Amino acid sequence: MISTKKIYHADSSDDFQDWQAELSAAVSDLDTLFTLLDLPKQAHSHTPKQFGLRVPHAFIKKMKKGDIHDPLLRQVLPDGRERMTVDGYSTDPLDENNHNPIKGLLHKYQSRVLLTVTGACAVHCRYCFRQHFDYHANQPSTHEMDEVMDYITKHTEVNEVILSGGDPLSLNNKRLKLWLDKITAIGHIRTVRLHTRLPVVLPNRVDHELIALIRHYQKNIVIVLHINHPNEIDDQLIAKTKQLKDAGATLLNQSVLLASINDDIQTLSKLNQDLFGAGILPYYLHILDKVQGAAHFDIDIHDAVGLYWQLLEALPGYLVPKLVQERPNHPFKTPIDIYQYSNKKMKLMIKNACNL
Ligand SMILES: *Cc1c(COP(=O)(O)O)cnc(C)c1O
Ligand code: SF4
């Protein structure tokens, strides 16, 4: 009985003093997760030591109780299939180790650099392409921050700095401010971008201090959220995105196309319309990176293009994210050629349209 009571208290995010307490109370054992979701315990569940289960209570609350197939649960629930090695799926699918001139800095694309400012994430997404990345070796210390800044200062072709990770919003506001102060002080930097899932999985992270911080800077602040399913968007998130927008941030979203989670036209079209309702514009729809342990989330490229085609038909252009794939050593995220991968029916439609 005592443990049930404890779980009940932890379940209500209002009980937490602040977002950091909520973050450290994230669920990391299957028994607690299943109890919270009214699911029967599983005898042969798989919990890896590295990159184990991690999910904040606020995200669990968005899941449907009693449903093992819930699309939010599937994104975080460890699965025995992760242990299979599948041809073509590797631990460094993007060959990032080759574009790592100094610790914590990736310079793959001409005008922007990506900084891995922390290895920590509030949630462990099972399909994450960075799950094998050596964050420890790649997190700049305060001293190494200066090396990063020197690099950016010398590279005047860079006008945008992306804070990534891990999740940059898992840093506390003080640390985040330190990064933002240094980056925005560089004259040729016009935009700072944050790639984050924290407002989605732990909306309380967007606190007054963070809002004030975003409001403070004169330079463009772009926040790219990571939302894969419309059930991730609720009133609490909408209240937070509104505050972020009011503070002057531009909000975009990237999703990953995931088997049995969002690979149907109803889900995708609702997702992109609901994003707009929350003041967020769709940016990218990623074909899954071929990372070891995630093959069961992958979908056939022809099916992906078939879905995308339906999305183009169903939605206005501004609600259709770009369908892209990251290919090692390409100078940008590669747009998928929807004609190359069309099926016969689509080819026929194109032919007929051209004959009109
Ligand atoms: C995705 C990514 C970027 C940003 O690419 P955009 O197309 O500008 O969104 C920059 N650097 C790295 C290493 C990336 O993976
Ligand atoms: S939040 Fe992003 S970086 Fe963190 S585990 Fe999920 S996909 Fe990976």
UniProtKB/TrEMBL annotation:
Entry annotated with the keyword Glycoprotein: no
Residue ranges annotated for the Radical SAM core domain, each copy included: 107-322
Domain of life: Bacteria
Pfam families recorded: Radical_SAM
Keywords per UniProt: 4Fe-4S, Iron, Iron-sulfur, Isomerase, Metal-binding, Pyridoxal phosphate, S-adenosyl-L-methionine
Organism: Moraxella catarrhalis (Branhamella catarrhalis)
Cofactor(s) listed: [4Fe-4S] cluster; pyridoxal 5'-phosphate
Catalysed transformations (reactions): L-lysine = D-beta-lysine
InterPro entries (alphabetical): Aldolase_TIM, EpmB, Lys_aminomutase/Glu_NH3_mut, rSAM, rSAM_sf
Protein name in UniProt: L-lysine 2,3-aminomutase
CDD domains, per database record: Radical_SAM (cd01335)
Keyword Iron tagged: yes
Family of this protein: Belongs to the radical SAM superfamily. KamA family.
NCBIfam families (UniProt xref): EFP_modif_epmB, KamA family radical SAM protein
